[in-house]
Amino acid sequence: MLAPGGFVRSRPPTVMRCNICRQPCPGEPERGRVRSNVRKFQSEIFELWRCPHCKSIHACDEVDLAHYYADYPFHHLGATDVDWMMRAMYDNLLSRLRQAGLDEQQAVIDYGCGSGHFLSFLESRGYQDLAGYDEYSEGFADAAVMQRQYDCVMTQDVIEHVPEPLELVETLHGLAKPGGIVVIGTPNAEAIDLQNPEPRVHTLHQPYHRHILSKTALQALGADFGWELLKYYPTMYANTRVPFVNSAFVNHYFRCFDNNCDLVIEPIKASSWKLFTPATLAHAFFGSAWAPESDVMAIFRRP
Questions:
Q1: Is 195 exposed, middle or buried (0-12, 13-18, 19+ CB in 10 A)?
Q2: CATH architecture of the region 78-188+213-226
Q3: Per-residue pLDDT tens for 223-249?
Q4: For the chain, what are the domain ranges?
């Protein structure tokens, strides 16, 4: 039976098993509890546990995800034009892809593309052989694009949402051409203190993130398929040197208000006195230098 909050507390099995490194976890693992960072559910608390082997973090609670996704803030971003902040982020991301060998003649799929913003950006930069897939996006739910292979398989903030991360890795492997690149951006469990989770409430993003890989586990992904790790980035592509467009400033801005991710889709606010401090300018102009290693990226090459 569902609790009023829409979730079911389930008793974990006697011997828990990590579905990332596949190792059993005998005994009692490290646990933590954290609130949701979505305003509508911020009063709800969720339990997590950490694998003692690969240090990845897993959600304990079985949840009715349809209940939580029914009014998911990021679904309200819509298919709006890419603004200057997004362009700064996407320029940074494209720079990483080009360093890995991507050029305008190659085929790209954005797996979990949402409203297709990054695809629109790539098109504006001269890329033409583009595809997007997202089963939850009306414009990109056609699985026909999954029937071919691509020079670049891009997936950002997806693997932590799926129930079986290794099954997604197998899917990405099948989408990549031999010699193609696979790009995975995701949170880093090793940056999270489960005994003091509030500073990383957005990285944990409960109950949506089901399995959060450690950076060690991320870099080892694809070993069964012979993937070569080309580059590991200790920050996400949104951490740029453009003023105001960096991870530290975003986190500072959130903390100036109610520290919920709904702020992303809302008009920029200036109603908090906390914004009118030297700390705001420091974060805005120099925040990229001290961004935490909480959201990371790895680029692999398929043999």
A1: exposed
A2: 3-Layer(aba) Sandwich (3.40)
A3: 999 999 999 999 999 999 999 999 999
A4: 7-74, 78-188+213-226
